[in-house]
UniProtKB/TrEMBL annotation:
The gene is nad3. Core subunit of the mitochondrial membrane respiratory chain NADH dehydrogenase (Complex I) which catalyzes electron transfer from NADH through the respiratory chain, using ubiquinone as an electron acceptor. Essential for the catalytic activity of complex I. Residues 1-20 form the signal peptide. It comes from Urechis caupo. Its main location: membrane. Its EC number is 7.1.1.2. It is an enzyme of class 7 (translocase). This is NADH-ubiquinone oxidoreductase chain 3. Keywords: Electron transport, Membrane, Mitochondrion, NAD, Respiratory chain, Signal, Translocase, Transmembrane, Transmembrane helix, Transport, Ubiquinone. It is a multi-pass membrane protein.
Length: 118
């Protein structure tokens, strides 16, 4: 056998053996049924879909997404910025986002202590 055949044979034999061992050794019972059920946002997928959704959770998720995407898009531009217009534009954009965040905070959308307000 050549030197290329040994690693190729190992790579073809080892994954099925490991998969078969894991499948045989895995303990499956009816108690594990809850672990394998789909889970999304705390809702039971087998119940009705017409349940009230927390508007506070939605608003906080939107605020998080806005700031997360803003960081992902703006940080590489600022790090590689060579002109002053890019830096000034980024600062203006950040100021607009901070003003929006302060407005959300003053409005009470980020306050989770009072759960009655929607």
């Amino acid at each position: 056998m050549s030197m290329m055949m040994i690693p190729m044979m190992i790579s073809l034999i080892l994954p099925p053996v490991v998969f078969a061992l894991a499948f045989c050794l895995a303990a499956r019972s009816s108690a594990d049924r809850e672990k394998t059920s789909p889970f999304e946002c705390g809702f039971d997928p087998h119940k009705t879909a017409r349940q009230p959704f927390s508007l506070r959770f939605f608003l906080l998720a939107v605020v998080f997404l806005v700031f997360d995407i803003e960081i992902v898009l703006l940080l590489p531009i600022v790090m590689e910025a060579t002109s002053k217009t890019v830096v000034y534009g980024s600062i203006i954009f950040l100021l607009i986002l901070v003003i929006g965040l302060l407005h959300e905070w003053r409005e009470g959308s980020l306050d989770w202590t009072s759960s009655t307000k929607q």
